[in-house]
Design goal:
The chain is of the alpha/beta class. Helices cover 33% and strands 22% of the residues. The chain has a 9-stranded mixed β-sheet, sandwiched between helices. α1 packs parallel to α3 and α3 packs across α4. The N terminus is likely disordered.
Length: 281
């Protein structure tokens, strides 16, 4: 019941029902670029919105952050692909980082049940903001992001019914505590690390599987086979279990690649193909 109440509160906040902040009047940097701030649960999140060429309204993606006090600059390497695909791109400073207000809190196994939901509320607030703009097609808004954003986007789908798809670079499908345990084994040979991880019995923290199991929208995970920060070998069977249960969740694995896949251009052709296969282009 506590989780249901918290999700409801965050959803209300994302829709402008909580907090004392309002969206600022956008500053038009160019005919296709805007800057400003949108509200989320008592914070004002500084954003940059870039539009593709041509007439709108456009489909759009909200970019989600990796760990740490990340800013909108972190998503810039992903932006050209989405613009080329005809999508607008919304990037924002994480709460408490860059020009955004609010309090930055790192994610740990101990706080992840509430902290992942707070960050998910921020992404959902970005979706709500985009739906107010006449140049955005509110029926075609998705989420994309790297690493930690995998958990955040899974939780965001429980907050906003307006999310139409998710593309997660090196996002984890295991609980936060399990993933942290694997990160702490990254100096060991990879086979030894997986053997040690199989014996982990500590704190679990936020688990994305129930949220992924509940969603009806397509979700794509892009994973590196040699990732030392996300346990790809454990994540894959979980994705397969979701698929066998009827969820529209899939994964693509890239051999001989680690966590740097999050900043690589290798997945772009696969994402373009996946977007077409899901009727999202």
């Amino acid at each position: 019941m506590r989780r249901i109440a918290l999700v409801a509160a965050l959803a209300l906040a994302a829709c402008g029902g909580m907090g004392d902040h309002a969206a600022t009047t956008p500053s038009q940097v160019s005919p296709s670029s805007f800057k400003g701030a949108f509200p989320s649960s008592g914070a004002s999140l500084d954003y940059e919105l870039n539009l593709p060429a041509g007439p709108g309204p456009f489909p759009a993606v909200v970019f989600g952050h990796g760990s740490g006090p990340a800013t909108k600059a972190d998503g810039s390497v992903h932006e050209p692909f989405w613009l080329d695909q005809g999508f607008a791109v919304l990037r924002f400073d994480k709460r408490g980082a860059g020009q955004s207000t609010g309090v930055y809190r790192g994610v740990s196994a101990a706080n992840s049940q509430t902290q992942i939901l707070e960050l998910a509320g921020d992404m959902a607030a970005g979706v709500t903001f985009l739906r107010t703009r006449p140049d955005i097609d509110g029926r075609r808004i998705g989420l994309t992001g790297v690493s930690q954003a995998g958990w955040v986007m899974a939780a965001a789908m429980t907050i906003s019914r307006d999310i139409r798809f998710v593309v997660a670079f090196v996002g984890s499908t295991v609980p936060v505590g399990v993933n942290v345990a694997y990160e702490n084994l990254r100096d060991q040979p990879i086979d030894e690390a997986y053997a040690a991880l199989a014996r982990y019995g500590g704190l679990q923290g936020y688990d994305p599987l129930p949220d992924l199991r509940a969603t009806a929208v397509p979700v794509l995970y892009l994973l590196g086979a040699e990732d030392r920060l996300v346990p790809t070998r454990v994540c894959l069977p979980l994705v397969e279990s979701l698929r066998s249960g009827g969820s529209r969740v899939s994964a693509r694995v890239y051999p001989a690649v680690g966590h740097e896949l999050g900043s690589s251009s290798r997945p772009w052709p696969d994402i373009a193909e996946w977007l077409r296969s899901q009727g999202l282009r």
